Amino acid sequence: MLLDFDRLGPLRWLLVGVGGAVSLFLLLPVLFIVALSFGNSQWLMFPPPGWTLQWYSMLFSDPGWFDSLMTSVELGLVVMVLSVVLGLFASLALTRGDFRGRALLKSFFLTPMVLPVVVLAVALYGFFLRIGLTGTLVGFVIGHLIIALPFSIIAISNSLESFDTSLEDAALICGASPFEVKWRVTLPAIRLGLFAAAIFSFLASWDEVVVSIFMSSPTLQTLPVRIWGTLRQDLTPVIAAASSLLVGLTVVLMLLGLVLKRGKS
C-alpha cells in the first residue's frame, strides 16, 4: 500500500525535516573534506582561514599523483568494458538458460559482494604472488573485475527479466537472424541496465582500495592507494583535493545515470 504524501498534513514537514537531517548527517563528512581541499592552510584545518586552488595545482603537477589518477581512470575503463561484456553473457545464461544448478551459479557470481574484501584481497595476493601478477595492470584488472562483475550481473539480469521476449519472437518471425535480434532488439531494450552496469563497474574499480593495496607496487598505484599511503605520512590538503576528485566523479556518474533514467521514463 502506497502512502499518500500530500495528505499527511503537518506530519509531512516532519518527515521532510527528518529526511533532510539524515541526508545532512551522511553528507557532512564529504562536504567537510571538499571544503578542506580549497583551504589555504597547509594543515587540515576547519574552517579554512582562506580559500585557494593551490592543492589542486599541486595534485595535477605532481607526477606521482597524476600517474595514480591516470592509472585509476585507465583501470576503471578497462574493468567497466570487461564487466559489461562478461556480465551480459553471464546474465543471458542465467535468465535465458535452462540448466540444472542455475540458481547456485547465480549465487556463486554474487559471492564477491558478501565475502569480506580483505579475505578476497589476501587470497588474490597469495595466488598472484605465485604466478607473478602482483604489481601488474593485469593483476589489478582481474582483482577489480571480480569485485565489479556482480554489480554488472545484477543490473543486466534485472533488465533482461523485465524485458518482453515476445519482441524477439516477432523479430525472428520477420526474418531477422538471432544475432540481429540481440543487436537490434534486445540490447537497445536493456540499454539502461547496460549503462547502470557500466557505471557501477567503473565506480567499483574507481573506489576500490583494499584489493588495490595488495596489488600495488612502488611504480603502479591507484589514486585511493596513493591517498592511503600519503595519509600515513602527512596530513597535507592535497589528500583532500584527491579525495574530492574521487567523490566528484562518483557524484557526476550517479547524476548522469539518474538523468538517463528520467529521460526514458
From TrEMBL:
<comment type="similarity">
    <text>Belongs to the binding-protein-dependent transport system permease family.</text>
</comment>
<protein>
    <submittedName>
        <fullName>Binding-protein-dependent transport systems inner membrane component</fullName>
    </submittedName>
</protein>
<keyword id="KW-0813">Transport</keyword>
<keyword id="KW-0997">Cell inner membrane</keyword>
<feature type="transmembrane region" description="Helical">
    <location>
        <begin position="12"/>
        <end position="38"/>
    </location>
</feature>
<feature type="transmembrane region" description="Helical">
    <location>
        <begin position="134"/>
        <end position="156"/>
    </location>
</feature>
<dbReference type="Pfam" id="PF00528">
    <property type="entry name" value="BPD_transp_1"/>
</dbReference>
<dbReference type="GO" id="GO:0055085">
    <property type="term" value="P:transmembrane transport"/>
</dbReference>
<feature type="transmembrane region" description="Helical">
    <location>
        <begin position="235"/>
        <end position="260"/>
    </location>
</feature>
<keyword id="KW-1133">Transmembrane helix</keyword>
<dbReference type="InterPro" id="IPR000515">
    <property type="entry name" value="MetI-like"/>
</dbReference>
<feature type="domain" description="ABC transmembrane type-1">
    <location>
        <begin position="69"/>
        <end position="257"/>
    </location>
</feature>
<feature type="transmembrane region" description="Helical">
    <location>
        <begin position="75"/>
        <end position="95"/>
    </location>
</feature>
<feature type="transmembrane region" description="Helical">
    <location>
        <begin position="107"/>
        <end position="128"/>
    </location>
</feature>
<keyword id="KW-0812">Transmembrane</keyword>
<keyword id="KW-1003">Cell membrane</keyword>
<keyword id="KW-0472">Membrane</keyword>
<dbReference type="InterPro" id="IPR035906">
    <property type="entry name" value="MetI-like_sf"/>
</dbReference>
<dbReference type="GO" id="GO:0005886">
    <property type="term" value="C:plasma membrane"/>
</dbReference>
<feature type="transmembrane region" description="Helical">
    <location>
        <begin position="192"/>
        <end position="215"/>
    </location>
</feature>
